[in-house]
């Protein structure tokens, strides 16, 4: 494998194509090295919105320990989430539903009025059908329950970041 890549890189202008293909094939955001060529890929930038500081802190630690995701901002309600998104321009907003001042559904609806709307993942303890349907109607890209596994949470973030939709297995039965 390494000899093959070395031969490709020796061809004029082919290393740019190879790096492009590698990035688009894997769609990961990390640093990699091919034959002394370093290329730093951007991490997925996330804003977290939850009215519980301990929950935000735990989610932030979980995400940042993965290395592919960075939390660029935090909010304790929907209004703060909107301000953070507009100011920080993240790739994704991860938001709870029930928060003071403005809930997560209202914030999702407001943010989706923009034609270049941010990707939004609802992370909630509520598995109520009404909440799930409202989240879809408001334009959420995904909905996960807070008791989801770390692996499913990360899979949802990566799927949504790549332009997909993600709803946890329990929810998809609704």
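-> sequence recovered:
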């Amino acid at each position: 494998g390494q000899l093959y890549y070395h031969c490709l890189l020796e061809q004029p202008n082919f290393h740019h194509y190879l790096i492009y293909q590698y990035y688009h094939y894997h769609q990961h955001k990390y640093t990699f090295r091919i034959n002394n060529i370093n290329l730093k890929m951007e991490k997925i930038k996330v804003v977290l919105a939850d009215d519980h500081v301990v929950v935000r802190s735990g989610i932030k630690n979980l995400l940042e320990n993965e290395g592919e995701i960075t939390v660029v901002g935090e909010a304790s309600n929907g209004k703060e989430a909107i301000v953070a998104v507009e100011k920080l321009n993240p790739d994704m907003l991860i938001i709870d539903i029930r928060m003071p001042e403005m809930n997560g559904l209202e914030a999702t609806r407001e943010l989706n009025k923009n034609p270049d709307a941010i990707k939004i993942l609802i992370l909630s303890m509520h598995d109520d059908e009404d909440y799930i349907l409202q989240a879809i109607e408001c334009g959420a890209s995904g909905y996960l329950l807070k008791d989801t596994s770390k692996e499913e949470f990360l899979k949802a973030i990566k799927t949504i970041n790549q332009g997909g939709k993600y709803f946890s297995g329990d929810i998809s039965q609704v």
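The two ends are 46 Å apart (CA to CA).
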